[in-house]
TrEMBL record:
Keywords: Cytoplasm, Initiation factor, Protein biosynthesis, RNA-binding. It is found in: Cytoplasm. One of its GO terms (cellular component) is eukaryotic translation initiation factor 3 complex. Belongs to the eIF-3 subunit D family. It comes from Umbelopsis ramanniana AG. This is Eukaryotic translation initiation factor 3 subunit D. GO terms for molecular function: mRNA cap binding; translation initiation factor activity. Component of the eukaryotic translation initiation factor 3 (eIF-3) complex. Residues 1-24, 51-78, 116-166, 555-585 are annotated as: Disordered. Residues 303-317 are annotated as: RNA gate. The lineage of its organism: Eukaryota, Fungi, Fungi incertae sedis, Mucoromycota, Mucoromycotina. One of its GO terms (biological process) is cap-dependent translational initiation. Its main location: cytoplasm. The keyword tRNA-binding does not apply.
Length: 585
């Protein structure tokens, strides 16, 4: 078989003998009438698309540089490889309006502009002029070392300054648990946002005293002379103060039977409703509708039995895996203990004022250990104004208020009632301190700054204290400043000072409006009057500024009460067993 030789045949070449460009018989029919656009020899095919420098910027660079010919070789544009055909205006440019409108360059700044902006945002140019001047003159200050290091130990300038917002994205998200477990059979009736509550207003109703019970002691004025140089140890005095819920109050039960009121509550519940927009931590109120009456109750062991610490600070105390004395739960228990101990310590046990009726919560054998507390029951008229000839159903709010002590003032024969509270300092350098100043250094010389910081970090708690004092008719609020003897020990405390405030002046400093508070109470009462008979729960969402109203079964909290009774019985049985063992030994 003969071998075949390779062959190569040149393709036909179409020559345009009458002009420049391809021959006319080679072009397709649709391209024959389009003129040919030449290109510049200076154009380089380096990139398909250049997003870093738009066409307008390249043309401006060429005009500033003053050079012609090959573009891009100047101090404004150092890249010689530009997009193909950029040097000649083309007749084939087609712009689609919708496509151009939908496209936008994210950041078309140069690298130098981006770097300068980043340095400025980080605060790096704060001291640059002084640094450059010192370097240029070859001089250094007495505390300056190696250029940008100053101070003892070579710390960089501004190293210890607090940058607000620095690494806020890296902070763990606070996901709190609800104050009460929402059962599967609970149904949501309504949701109320805090911004709606802040817009409510109602004229403060007049109060009528309907009874006073218990006794109060006189305030010991020697505690007004305490300061940071003359501190006093906080003592633990065994006194029992009863804070019974509304439905278990025997005086309230008597008023219900006598139909003296429509809505029944305590001053702590009413103050929490008035200050609800300031709260951050979760809480709940049990609402019971019986016939034509509404009863607002608290749950045992709930948010009403403990005080919060730094609830409103930007970075509140955080729960950790390990047990810490600065966790929210530990600080809450510590603050509750401090308040009860301080209120029992600052009174004079020898001077006592008996009110109209004895204490309804203690027997004759327990009266000696009862704390100084006067229970004043008041009635507020929340009836709607009459319109036309229609009869208006009267709505009277019965509230149990409390006063802690009394003090004699000049020019008055009758003593003045006051409430006693205590602010506590745990550790100004710990997480959750909220930028508080050290009380031992600043309480005597900068008390205004200390109070302003506490108003910011504990806005909800202080607002509730002021409202409770105003509802009780107290003319003064005695606030004590109690700090730990050692920041690492939460069992020993010292009193560093006291201060007296008038409730209305204190509320004015906190920008707290009683008209808004009564507006919230009026809205809640009107909502409760529209409910049918049954049990409901008003719950503050643990992570949102929302109130939710749930309809719950009548026995929703009976299981919790039974568990508590069983635990108490077990504790009593264990104590009896221990006593029997000791007696047998």
């Amino acid at each position: 078989m003969a071998e075949s030789k390779p062959s190569f045949t040149l393709p036909p070449i179409k020559d345009n003998s009458i002009g420049w460009g391809p021959a006319s018989d080679v072009l397709p029919e649709q391209f024959r009438d389009i003129p040919y656009a030449p290109y510049s020899k200076g154009d380089k095919l380096g990139r398909i698309a250049d997003w870093s420098a738009p066409e307008t910027q390249k043309q401006d660079n060429r005009e500033v540089s003053g050079r012609t010919g090959r573009q891009g070789f100047n101090r404004f544009n150092k890249d010689p490889y530009q997009s193909y055909g950029a040097g000649v205006s083309s007749a084939f440019i087609y712009t689609h309006n919708e496509d151009e409108a939908s496209f936008s360059v994210v950041d078309n700044r140069s690298a130098a502009a981006k770097k300068a902006s980043a340095i400025k945002a980080a605060g790096g140019q704060r001291n640059r002029p002084q640094k450059q001047q010192a370097t240029r003159n070859g001089l250094r200050g007495p505390n300056q070392r190696f250029g940008n290091q100053t101070g003892r130990g070579g710390r960089q300038q501004g190293q210890n300054r607090r940058r607000f917002g620095w690494k806020d994205y890296d902070k763990p998200q606070r996901m709190r648990d609800a104050s009460v477990t929402v059962g599967p059979e609970w149904s949501v009736l309504d949701e109320i946002e805090f911004n709606r509550l802040a817009k409510l207003t109602y004229k403060a109703p007049t109060s009528t005293d309907i009874g006073s019970y218990g006794h109060i002691n006189m305030y010991d004025k020697s505690y007004d002379r305490i300061n940071t140089r003359n501190e006093k140890l906080l003592q633990h005095i065994d006194r029992v103060k009863y804070d019974t819920t509304t439905s278990d109050d025997p005086i309230m039960q008597q008023f219900m039977q006598e139909n003296k009121g429509t809505v029944f509550a305590t001053d702590s519940i009413l103050a929490l409703l008035m200050c609800a927009p300031r709260t951050v931590y979760p809480w709940d109120i049990v609402i019971t509708r019986v016939e034509d009456k509404v009863i607002l109750d608290k749950r045992d062991g709930g948010a009403f039995d403990f005080l919060t610490v730094n609830e409103n600070t930007a970075d509140p105390p955080m729960e950790t895996e390990k047990e810490s004395i600065n966790s929210p739960g530990a600080l809450s228990s510590e603050a509750t203990f401090i308040n009860s101990s301080f209120a029992a310590q600052v009174i004079d046990q020898n001077e006592k004022i008996e009110l109209e009726n004895p204490n309804p919560f203690v027997g004759a054998d327990e009266a000696e250990n009862a704390a100084s507390c006067g229970y004043r029951y008041k009635s507020f008229d929340l009836s709607n104004p009459a319109t036309g000839d229609e009869e208006v159903e009267p709505v009277h709010l019965i509230v149990r208020t409390e006063v802690d002590a009394a003090v004699k003032t000049a020019g008055s024969q009758e003593p003045t009632y006051l409430t006693v509270r205590a602010l506590n300092e745990f550790d100004p350098n710990a997480q959750g301190a909220g930028g508080a100043l050290s009380w031992r250094k600043a309480l005597d010389s900068q008390r205004g700054a200390v109070v302003a910081t506490e108003m910011k970090n504990n806005s909800a708690k202080l607002a509730r204290w002021a409202v409770q004092a105003l509802l009780a008719g107290a003319e003064q609020m005695k606030i004590g400043y109690v700090s730990r003897a050692s920041p690492k020990d939460s069992s020993r405390h010292v009193v560093l000072g006291t201060q007296a405030y008038k409730p209305r002046d204190f509320m004015a400093q906190m920008n707290l409006s009683m008209a808004n508070g009564w507006g919230i109470v009026k809205a809640v009462v009107d909502m409760c009057m529209l409910l049918s008979e049954g049990k409901y729960v008003l719950v503050k969402d643990p992570n949102k500024a929302i109130l939710r109203v749930y309809s719950v079964p009548d026995d929703a909290f009976d299981g919790a009460d039974e568990d508590e009774e069983e635990e108490e019985e077990e504790v009593e049985a264990e104590e009896k067993g221990d006593e029997q063992k000791k007696s047998s030994q």
